[in-house]
Each structure stands twice: as C-alpha cells, then as structure tokens.
C-alpha cells in the first residue's frame, strides 16, 4: 500500500459484501446499547411502533438518496457534493465534522465494551457491586483510554488496507455471526427469565397514551444515529457500488437489517431487566454494563450468555467504526490528496485526541461543563453529553435537511431518478417519494430540532 492517492474506482467484491459492510455500519452501539433503554423510556411498544414508522418514512429514503449521490459521483463526501454543485462542499464538511465528533465518544464506549467482553472471557467476575465496578472503571484515568486506543489502532490498521477488501471480508463473517449471537441471547433470555413475558408485552404492545413529541423525537433521533443518516455514511459507501446494483432494494435491505438488530437487542435486554426487577429508565446508558452483568450473573449459564452478548456488541462496534472512520479517511485521501497512509494517520490522531478528552470527561475532567442554550436558558453539559447532543440532535437533522434540499433543488429529481433507478431499469421516482423528500423528512427533522431546544414537549 503506497502513500499515493488512490483515484481508481474501488468497488465492492459482491453485493452481499456491500450489504454486510453497510449493515455493519448501521448496526452498532445505537442498536444494542442505546435502543433498549430509549425504548423503555419511550413507553416500550409505542416507541417501537414509532421507530418502525420513522425508519420506513425517513430512514429508508435517506439511505437511498445518500447512496445515489455517492454512486453517481464516485467521490468522498465533500467532493461528491462539489461535483454536482461546487458551492455545496460545505454539506460534506459538515458531515465530516459530525462523524469525527461521534467517533470521539463512540470509540470510548467501544473500549468499555471490549473491556467487559474480555472480563467475561477471563473470569466473568465484576464484583458484588456492578455499579461500583462500572463507575470505577469508566472514571479511571488510564485503563479506559488504553482500551479505546486498542479499538482505535485495530480499526485504523484494518482500514489502511482498504474498506473494499480486508474490511469487506471481515464484515461477511462478523455480521451473520452478530445476528446468530443476538438470536442465541434472545432465546436464552426468554427461556430462563421467570418474568420475561411481562417484559415482552411491555416491549411489543403499544400504549398510545404514552405517546408525546419527546417520544417521537427520541425515536426519530435514534433512527438517525442507528441507521446512520445525515452524516455522510452512505455517500462514502455508495461511491464503491457497481452501476448494476439496485439502490432501492439495497436501501430497503440495509434498513431491515438495522431494525431487526435493534429489535433483537430489545428482546435480550427488556425481558432480562423485567425478570431481574430492574428499573431500566433509571439505568439509562449504563444499562448493558452494570445492569446486564448483574442480571447475567443470576441466570443459569450467565457467563456464557454474557460472553455472547458482549461479543455481539463488540462486533457491532467494530463493524460500525470501519465505515465511520472511512468517511474522514477518504475525504482526506481524495479531496485533500493526502494519500491513504497520511489520511489514515491524520484521522486516527484527531479521533484519538478526542477519545482521550472524552474518556477523561468521566473522571479527571468530570467537572468540565460545556454551554448549551435552549428555550429554558443556558445549561451546561458534560463532555460526552455535549458531544452526543450536538451531533445526534443538531448536526444529523441539519445534515438530513441539506440532503433533501440538495436532491430536490440542486441535483433535481430527474437526475436523481436516472441514478437511483439505473435510467428506469428499476422503476421510477413516484410522487410519494418526492413528498417524503420535500415534506416528510424535513418535517421530522424540524420536530427533532424544536424538541431539542425545548419548544416541543
């Protein structure tokens, strides 16, 4: 691998390989770590119903639009927008900023997952107080950073050799194995938990009296984070798709895989927590670490299921980070003509510095608070919370709105239709598709933004 910029068209080895990489990009911490506790907080079944509707009305069409931009231009995220309209490079840079900031905390949490998976493999012993174990580990100065750096280096080394060869081969194994592990965990959780049925009912049966704008905004934001839309992911992956691929069916498959993984994760977590008498709502983001370890300890064969569960999360983390890193690597490589080696190093250094600061934000720098303004006035958030809020609730919705405007007003529906349907081979862009682009998706994003700033409850 030389340091020369690789300008050749890099295509996926197979459609299955692309789908596994794309599904791996979508399926990550958002599905297994974030989705279960948000589903509980959002009312269980009603959150699930809203989530599925939002995936259909927003997630799938956004994947389709972003992928079409990437395949048409064959460029990195910034150059993709610039090739169609030179004034629109800012949309690609906004996506890169969003992705880099996400990686600053995503890698840190990924390091926690690696630590817990390792602990399960060697002993499965987290002490008598799981909350204390979690707090002591995440707030320590050195160990979380070490685990984050292990994740960072592994992902960077794999990507140095290219996402369309080494990473594609890994994804073909990791993604099917991830679903197998989740199914095993789900069956185990339902089989050995005494109160599992109560958890399943809460999780699947909607109570629409619990619906609110906050529930909708949480579900829609979870789709942004989980499916990976609004921040350049599918422009980057789409650049390598052969012209003969059906982008419409590919987008559906990616959305289905992602939603299935989230629902499966919920089947593991919610029934287990119900059986253990755990208040998932108060557990929040720490759920899979300090709560699930406590529950698995009480289950027959709990260590085995713990190994499977955390390995599944680890596979999801790594498969996502391969594509997350590639967004910035390819931008530096192609748009800034830095070459693969230097682009990979620069991306790793930027993210690594952010990882250190974010990790210390749970301990040594926990007193550092960053300002956030909403309808209630000036608030202050911790480093992780500020990064999560700024990216998932602000930059991602803005990114989606920009893509919709770009498709409808800049590129135009006629040009978009030629690309996404292979000049009519795979159908046409319907009035329904246009309404989703110009009205439904932007409306959903505006609701998220108004909720974020406290104007809707």
Walk me through the structure.
- The protein is mainly α.
- Helix content is 75%, strand content 2%.
- The protein has 19 helices and two strands.
- The chain has helices spanning 15-26, 29-41, 45-73, 77-84, 89-122, 130-139, 143-160, 163-192, 196-204, 213-228, 233-238, 247-275, 280-283, 287-298, 302-335, 340-360, 383-411, 413-420, 431-452, and strands at residues 370-374, 377-381.
- The protein is globular, with a radius of gyration of 21 Å.
How would you sum up this structure in a few lines?
This protein is an all-alpha fold and 457 residues long.
Chain-wise SSE layout:
Elements: H1 15-26, H2 29-41, H3 45-73, H4 77-84, H5 89-122, H6 130-139, H7 143-160, H8 163-192, H9 196-204, H10 213-228, H11 233-238, H12 247-275, H13 280-283, H14 287-298, H15 302-335, H16 340-360, E1 370-374, E2 377-381, H17 383-411, H18 413-420, H19 431-452
Antiparallel strand pairs: 1-2
Helix pairs in contact: 1-8, 1-12, 1-15, 2-10, 2-12, 3-4, 3-9, 3-10, 3-12, 3-19, 4-5, 5-7, 5-15, 5-16, 5-17, 6-14, 7-15, 7-16, 8-12, 8-15, 9-12, 10-17, 10-19, 12-14, 14-15, 15-16, 17-18, 17-19
């Amino acid at each position: 691998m030389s340091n020369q910029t690789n300008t050749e068209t890099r295509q996926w080895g197979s459609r299955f390989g692309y789908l596994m990489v794309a599904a791996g990009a979508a399926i990550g911490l958002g599905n297994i770590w974030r989705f279960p506790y948000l589903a509980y907080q959002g009312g269980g079944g009603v959150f699930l119903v809203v989530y599925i509707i939002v995936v259909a009305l927003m997630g799938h069409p956004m994947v389709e639009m972003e992928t079409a931009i990437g395949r048409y231009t064959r460029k990195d995220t910034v150059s993709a927008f610039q090739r169609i309209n030179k004034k629109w490079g800012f949309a690609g840079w906004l996506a890169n900023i969003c992705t880099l900031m996400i990686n600053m905390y995503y890698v840190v949490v990924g390091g926690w997952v690696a630590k817990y998976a390792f602990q399960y493999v060697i002993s499965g012993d987290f002490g008598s107080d799981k909350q204390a174990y979690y707090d002591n580990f995440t707030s320590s100065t050195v160990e979380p950073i070490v685990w984050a750096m292990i994740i960072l280096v592994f992902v960077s080394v794999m990507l140095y050799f290219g996402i369309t060869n080494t990473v594609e081969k890994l994804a073909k194994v990791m993604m099917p194995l991830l679903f197998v592990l989740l199914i095993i965990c789900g069956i185990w959780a339902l089989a050995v938990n005494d109160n599992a049925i109560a958890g399943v009912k809460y999780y699947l049966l909607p109570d629409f009296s619990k619906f609110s704008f906050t529930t909708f905004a949480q579900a829609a934001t979870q789709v942004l984070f989980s499916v990976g839309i609004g921040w350049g992911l599918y422009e980057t992956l789409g650049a390598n798709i052969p012209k003969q691929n059906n982008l419409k069916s590919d987008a559906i498959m990616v959305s289905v895989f992602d939603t299935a993984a989230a629902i499966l994760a919920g089947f593991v977590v919610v029934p287990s927590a119900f059986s253990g008498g755990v208040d998932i709502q108060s557990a929040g983001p720490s759920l899979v670490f300090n709560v699930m370890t406590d529950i698995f300890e009480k289950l027959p064969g709990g260590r085995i299921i713990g190994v499977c569960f955390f390995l599944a999360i680890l596979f999801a983390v790594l498969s996502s980070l391969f594509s997350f890193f590639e967004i910035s690597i390819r931008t530096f490589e192609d748009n800034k003509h830095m070459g693969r080696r230097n682009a990979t190093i620069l991306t790793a250094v930027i993210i690594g510095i952010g990882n250190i600061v974010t990790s210390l934000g749970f301990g040594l720098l926990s007193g550092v608070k960053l300002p956030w303004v909403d309808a209630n006035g000036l608030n202050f958030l911790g480093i992780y919370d500020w990064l999560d809020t700024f990216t998932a609730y602000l930059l991602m919705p803005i990114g989606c709105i920009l893509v919709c405007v770009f498709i409808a007003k800049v590129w135009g529906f006629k040009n978009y239709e030629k690309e996404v349907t292979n000049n009519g081979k795979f159908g046409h862009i319907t009035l329904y598709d246009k309404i989703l682009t110009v009205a439904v998706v932007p409306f959903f994003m505006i609701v998220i933004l108004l909720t974020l700033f406290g104007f809707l409850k």
